[in-house]
Amino acid sequence: MRSLVGVDIDSVPERHTIVAEGVDLEVVDRAVALVSAGATDADPALRELAYLVGGLAPDRRDLPLIVSVGRMHRVKGMATLAETWAGSALSERANLLIIGGDLENPSLDEREQLDRIELAVPSAERATRGLILAGHRPNDIAARWVAAARLGIPGRVSGQGVYVCASIKEEFGIALLEALATGMVVVAPDGGGPATYVADQDTGFLTATWDTLALKEATHRALDRAALADPAIAERARTMVAERFTIQAMAAALAPVYRRVAEQEAELVRAAGAA
Fold it and tell me: What does pTM read for this prediction?
């Protein structure tokens, strides 16, 4: 904190409170419930995912999904993930679904990532090699797709997928937390925010995401763990998010801060009036 913003929170700890951003767990829980209920035909988002997976080559449709959600930016590592997947045996084990970016009118940053992905997997080969670039989707749709990647859609989308955050750095990781709340096994950077909440080798795997060899190995291990289909792993991940990172938890941490500020302000007003 001192190097980032010039504030040493350890020098006067009573003056500083760390409050984590909150995840809307209701969106995640609704997505899981919808997929669990088998409501694919009734839900446009799930129908679209089934359509996208159905557009892959027949021999790829039964493979699990590696999912990543985020901006098409170098720091987010989308091209690095695609290159790592395409250039290794990961592409034989799973399809890759990248959710994010403006595919029709990309910015310069997005164009750079898309050009690298195109070199790794040319557009004409995406269906046969198992790459789906979905572009940006609203949060509730992304949540349903992540839930479907974990739980599967019978006859349409294989379950036991994993979530990979290939960011060079990640201060917090909302999409990563939402994937954990869904019960997905994750791969995440071994520094920054994710290192404080991903239980390494349990709910996920922490690695040097900038190192393609390390990223590849961590993703293989995540796929192995997801294949166990152990509900206890999913429950531990969701419980961690529910206890520490919900909007309600954020509000509970912020309320005392605002209360203290209001009380101190009232005391200053009283003191000024008495003077």
Answer: 0.86
Query: Does 193 score more than 60 pLDDT?
Result: yes
Residue 39 is predicted with a pLDDT of 82
* pLDDT tens column, 83-98: 999 999 999 999 999 9
204 - beta bridge partners? 186, 200
Nearest partner of 184 among 147, 216, 143, judged by Cα? 147
**What phi, psi does 69 have (nearest 5°)?**
-125, 130
Measured distance CA(102)–CA(188) in Å, rounded: 24
- Pairing of β 204-207 and β 131-135: unpaired
Most distant CA pair in the chain: distance in Å?
Answer: 82
Q: What residue spans of 37-138 are helical by DSSP H?
A: 44-54, 78-86, 90-93, 108-120, 126-129
Instruction: Determine if residue 224 is left, alpha or beta; phi over 0 gives left, psi from -120 to 50 gives alpha, anything else beta.
Output: alpha
Distance CA 235, CA 127 (A): 34
User: Please, is 102 exposed, middle or buried when counting C-beta atoms within 10 Å of its C-beta (0-12, 13-18, 19+)?
Assistant: middle
